[in-house]
Task: inverse folding
């Protein structure tokens, strides 16, 4: 399978996140990209891993982390679940707080070349930019949400 050009690192940084839909087997998967600024290593290694891609679901509950017109809420290098406030490290996907503590987001393989981000995951086939229409599965934070800033 050949790599598919998704977007640019600059776009992901400017927007804070960027989402697309892909096919895995018989199922569609929502994926979002976020910048990762804290990568160790030399300049070439940092540029290669400047963006990470994650399946667009909280590990605790079937909740989108990236939402259309909002994007992914980030704080201090973490992606924050809008329902319960669990924070996932943008660089490694791990969570050490809230309802999702001890879990890790599922990473999707991407590569950065000449400032462009490419889908390199052999299990996924790019379908389109953005997310499917909201079917009401994640209404956002409820009145019982523990999310605070």
Result:
């Amino acid at each position: 399978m050949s790599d598919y050009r998704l977007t640019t690192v600059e776009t992901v940084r400017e927007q804070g996140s960027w989402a697309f839909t892909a096919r895995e087997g018989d199922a569609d998967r929502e994926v979002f990209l976020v910048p990762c600024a804290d990568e160790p290593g030399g300049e070439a290694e940092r540029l290669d891993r400047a963006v990470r891609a994650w399946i667009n679901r909280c590990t605790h509950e079937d909740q989108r982390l990236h939402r259309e017109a909002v994007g992914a809420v980030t704080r201090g290098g973490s992606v924050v679940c809008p329902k319960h406030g669990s924070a996932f490290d943008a660089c490694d996907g791990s969570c050490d707080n809230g309802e999702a503590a001890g879990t890790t987001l599922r990473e999707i393989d991407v590569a950065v070349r000449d400032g462009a981000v490419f889908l390199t995951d052999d299990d996924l086939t790019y379908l389109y930019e953005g997310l499917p229409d909201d079917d009401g599965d994640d209404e956002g934070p409820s009145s019982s949400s523990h999310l605070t800033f």
In short: Residues 140-149 have pLDDT under 50 and may be disordered. The longest strand covers residues 27-35. Residues 75 and 87 are 8 Å apart (CA to CA). The first helix runs from residue 9 to 15.
